[in-house]
Amino acid sequence: MAKYYDVHPDNPQPRTIAQIADSIRADALIAYPTDSCYALGCRIGSRDGVERIRSIRHLDDRHHFTLVCQDFAQLGQFVRVDNDVFRAIKASTPGSYTFILPATKEVPRMLQHPKKKTVGVRIPDHVVTQSLLHALGEPLLSSTLLLPDEEEPLTQGWEIKDRLDHVLDGVVDSGDCGTEPTTVIDFSGGEAEIIRRGAGDVTRFE
């Protein structure tokens, strides 16, 4: 049964955030809100969490997982970014974008694309998510909470708990959340390639 965390959207309660961070360190899989939509999240090294996300979403091994980072300094530990790409990403973060980039050795192999050795990274513009990342001290391994055969992600904390209570360890609810996933930009080839048009404006990448 998933624990339900009611978090204030503008002033997240430090004790509650600390409890969520502790549960993630203990290998919990949670659903949490972002600046685009709800996501599934666990600690980076959680093999169990990865397999549970794959199971919930029916994902194959070519799916790009995302490392949700607190800031650019943290992001830079996990992906290789040249100067031109650096400027493009820096101008777009924090925000509703996921960037596909070559992974560094800090990224567990199970999270990398099997052929490209790439991983997704993003810096969200969301108070609760940022508070959680600060408390955790490392990125969250994440994937959009989009269930198989459904066109839109789940958007309400109570609905997520009702439907996924048996497969999650926690649900973080801080009020309304968006319905549109992030815009995904692949920079692994050096040039910007728009993989998915979502919540982030794509005009600067066209």
From TrEMBL:
Domain YrdC-like: 14-200
A matching Pfam family: Sua5_yciO_yrdC
Keyword Transferase on entry: yes
Signal peptide start-end: none
Any one GO MF annotation of this record: L-threonylcarbamoyladenylate synthase
Enzyme Commission number, as recorded: 2.7.7.87
Record flagged with keyword Transferase: yes
Keyword annotations: Nucleotidyltransferase, Transferase
Top-level enzyme category: transferase
PANTHER family recorded: DHBP SYNTHASE RIBB-LIKE ALPHA/BETA DOMAIN-CONTAINING PROTEIN (PTHR42828), THREONYLCARBAMOYL-AMP SYNTHASE (PTHR42828:SF3)
Full protein name: L-threonylcarbamoyladenylate synthase
Source organism of this protein record: Streptomyces flavalbus
